[in-house]
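Subject: Sanity check before I submit

Could someone independently write out the structure tokens for this chain? I want to compare against mine line by line before I put it in a report. The sequence has 83 residues.
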Amino acid sequence: MTIESGGVAGRGFASVNLESKSADIKTEDQLYDYVRGRLSDKGHTYVFIDEPQRIEGWQDAVNAMRVDFNCDEGWARALRAGD
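---
Independent answer below. Compare away.
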């Protein structure tokens, strides 16, 4: 089953392919702002970042997202469900 076919209301998606020139994201702050601007107000937002290593400091952006966007609760629940 894919996330899209799960049929759960309120799920959002934010994806970016950093190999594409149309992404126009060059810094960790731009990556953070890109994702922040696409957060769903109706539930979880699933983030897909292709080729994050193209941005110096991408790990800091992802860590900040994890903290600022309250991702820990969902991860903890998902990990428990997988046991």
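---
OP: Matches mine. For the report I'm noting this point. The chain has three helices and two strands.
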